[in-house]
Amino acid sequence: MNYTFYLAIDRLDLGKGVAIEFIGPITVAALTTRTKRNAGALALAAVGVVVLSGIEIDNEPLGLLFIFLAAACWAAYIVVGARVAQYDRGVAGLGVGLAIGAVALAPFGIWQSGPAFSTPSLIAWCFVVGFFSNAVAYGIDQFTLRRIPVR
Known about the structure:
- The protein is mostly helical.
- The protein has one domain (2-145).
- The protein is 79% helix and 0% strand.
- It contains 8 helices and no strands.
- Helix 1 runs antiparallel to helix 5 (61-87), helix 3 crosses helix 5 (61-87) and helix 5 (61-87) crosses helix 8.
- The longest helix is centred in the middle third of the chain and has 27 residues, at 61-87.
- It is flat, with a radius of gyration of 17 Å.
- The model has no long low-confidence stretch (mean pLDDT 82).
């Protein structure tokens, strides 16, 4: 999810990218909504995405592909993350997921990581950023997803 998002905002405006990425959670909401009030809120959110994103398909198709992939990953994360949070009361599932993600994505970035391994302070900053942008953020998500239903 994060990898495709970062690839997208390398090619798209950050504001547009974030707005388009909300298509993922909006889709989950659309598929699970039960009331007219929720449907109205969903419609307003969808209109907001269109207005804020100002999608220009001919402008950067690869960036759009990446942001739509990020949106799909976010939708899957909401559904799967809620299930994992219900079955795993600790953070073991989160740790396994982060380890699998690191192993799966390492081949894509290892060729660019030479400078990071040659500078100890940069290695330390990589761990700090990784900890706060992944472990803490997703840990809070897992804590929250245990208490909030997907619907």
